């Protein structure tokens, strides 16, 4: 069985009986975080892009668990310069088989840079979405992205059991674009994320659920509060 636990904003932990990985672990400073960095026991940390609300506590969690940070080459290299002891770089379209399962990076339309304390900006490579294959199930985490047509290709190439899609607008897709993304991807279950953490990304997940039900009734919408899970 695969269990995906929403930890707030865009942070998701995916677990089987034997392994766990966390994606985009923005916990410290996240007003809706359902865990602390020291709570997580994981085999890997996957980061979709270098913005602080996604990179978050990745280095601390990876070092505490003696596990790798997985992401695009530039982002992993940046993390290693900042003290990450282990890293596994991939790039868009690339995949790798790990002991816990397979990770494949797919496109996302967004930016990716880290703002240092002195205000300087460090380029951290292309943003990415993540396909995570564990225990016979496929989980898609879109990262931060706008709507793009090749989501259909992702859905055509992979039978997605569970998708996490941003709905908050401003920086990412809004509700209507996320509904269109659901139509293109055709996951069995979709979970909205990246909304409500800050005023600028307020959105109503119930509206998203209603519109998905009307547009693609075969897709189940699960609205998860931070700390809640869905099992596959």
Main attributes?
16 strands, Metallo-beta-lactamase, Chain A, globular, alpha/beta, 232 residues, 22% helix, seven-stranded mixed sheet
Overview of the structural elements:
- With about 230 residues, the chain is an alpha/beta fold.
- The protein has a single domain (about 5-225), classed as Metallo-beta-lactamase, Chain A (4-Layer Sandwich), CATH 3.60.15.
- It has helices at about 50-55, 60-65, 75-80, 150-155, 175-185, 205-215, and strands spanning about 5-10, 10-15, 20-25, 45, 70, 85-90, 95-100, 100-105, 115, 120-125, 130-135, 135-140, 160-165, 190-195, 220, 230.
- The strands form 3 sheets. A 7-stranded mixed sheet has the order 6-5-4-3-2-1-16. A 7-stranded mixed sheet has the order 7-8-11-12-13-14-15, with helices on one face. It has a two-stranded antiparallel ribbon with strand order 9-10.
- Helix 4 runs parallel beside helix 5 (about 175-185).
- The termini are close together.
- The model has no long low-confidence stretch (mean pLDDT about 95).
């Amino acid at each position: 069985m695969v269990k995906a636990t929403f930890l707030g904003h865009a942070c998701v932990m995916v677990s089987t009986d034997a392994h766990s990985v966390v994606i985009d672990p923005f916990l410290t400073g996240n007003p809706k975080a359902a865990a602390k960095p020291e709570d997580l026991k994981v085999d890997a940390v996957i980061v979709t892009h270098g913005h602080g609300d996604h990179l978050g506590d990745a280095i601390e969690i990876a070092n505490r668990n003696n596990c790798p940070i997985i992401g695009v080459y530039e982002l992993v290299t940046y993390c290693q310069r900042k003290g990450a002891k282990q890293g596994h770089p991939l790039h868009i379209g690339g995949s790798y088989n790990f002991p816990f399962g397979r990770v494949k990076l797919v496109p996302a339309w967004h930016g990716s840079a880290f703002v240092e304390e002195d205000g300087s900006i460090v380029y951290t490579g292309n943003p990415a979405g993540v396909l995570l294959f564990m225990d016979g199930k496929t989980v898609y985490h879109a990262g931060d992205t706008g709507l793009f047509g090749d989501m259909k290709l992702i859905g055509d190439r992979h039978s997605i059991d569970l998708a996490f899609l941003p709905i908050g607008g401003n920086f990412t897709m809004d509700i209507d674009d996320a509904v269109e993304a659901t139509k293109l991807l055709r996951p069995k279950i979709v979970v909205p994320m990246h909304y409500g953490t800050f005023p600028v990304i307020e959105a109503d997940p119930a509206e998203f659920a209603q519109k998905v039900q009307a547009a693609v009734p075969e897709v189940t919408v699960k609205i998860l509060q931070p700390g809640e899970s869905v099992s596959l």
